[in-house]
Write a structure and sequence with these properties.
The protein is mainly beta. It has one domain. It has strands at 4-9, 12-20, 23-27, 35-41, 55-65, 71-78. Strands 1-2-3-4-5-6 form a 6-stranded antiparallel sheet, with no helix packed on it. The protein is globular and about 40 Å long. 18% of the residues are buried.
Amino acid sequence: MKNEIVGALWNDKEIDIARIDGRFFSLYGWNGEEYLHCWEVKDEKGLDKVSDDEYEIKPIFSETEDEYGNFDLIDFEIK
């Protein structure tokens, strides 16, 4: 499975949910480089937290930009 953004939190559409290595994480606390206050959820809808653990998750982008100056999201790093 590809690591990617799969949706948004069911009760807050501004919090994205990413699938990373078959697990789902709510991405929260963006500081311009990484998400500082992320948590694991049961599924892509984000209905249930798996635990109270917090994670820092850094998106990894392609090194080359497209014709519009955008970079593709290629992976995530969980800290």
